[in-house]
Design brief:
This protein has 10 helices and no strands. It is mainly alpha-helical. The N and C termini lie far apart (about 60 Å). One of its GO terms (biological process) is RNA modification. Keywords: Repeat.
Length: about 170
């Protein structure tokens, strides 16, 4: 077999994650000579999607945004953590994550906005969900983020807000 590079390491780690062999994936992650954001995000996703590994996901995320770490926290990392936070039901951690996203400028993509809205909505924090949507820049408002806020509004019975969102959308389209 030819020398392994970051792509082959990622493929091997990903295969073990998909087969629910997270302990072996972690061993490979720790011994891989080449790692990038894909490597870490794969592991982060594997942990977050598996019962009993949530704390490992949080610790890996903390490690990722440490100053000397080779993999940067990106949009995928943040949306994965928003989903995990909603799953865990930890509103405090969700607010900390939102604050981190704002400080680092990672709250400007449609995916990030949607993840924030979903996270807050699933925790029953409608005001925070709506504020996350309203506080985003115009370029980050896309169909996905609008659908997320519409779903949050419907969940809360805020039909008037849904109508306002559709009305504003029609104004933009005409």
């Amino acid at each position: 077999m030819p020398d392994r590079n970051v792509f082959t390491w990622n493929a091997i780690i990903s295969a073990h994650i998909k087969s629910n062999n997270l302990d072996h994936s972690e061993l490979l992650l720790n011994t891989a000579p080449y790692k990038d954001s894909v490597t870490y995000n794969s592991m982060l996703s594997g942990y977050a999607n598996s019962a009993g590994y949530e704390t490992k996901a949080i610790n890996l995320f903390k490690q990722m945004h440490s100053v000397r770490h080779e993999a940067r926290v990106d949009e995928f990392s943040l949306t994965r953590m928003c989903n995990l936070t909603a799953k865990l039901g930890n509103s405090w951690y969700g607010k900390q994550l939102h604050s981190f996203m704002v400080k680092t400028g990672n709250d400007i993509s449609g995916f990030a906005v949607s993840a924030l809205v979903n996270m807050y909505s699933k925790r029953g924090c409608f005001e925070e969900a709506y504020n996350a949507f309203n506080g985003c820049s115009y370029g980050s408002v896309d169909v996905v983020s609008k659908n997320a806020v519409v779903a949050a509004c419907c969940k809360e019975g805020k039909v008037d807000m849904v109508m306002e969102i559709f009305s504003n959308l029609l104004k933009v389209l005409t």
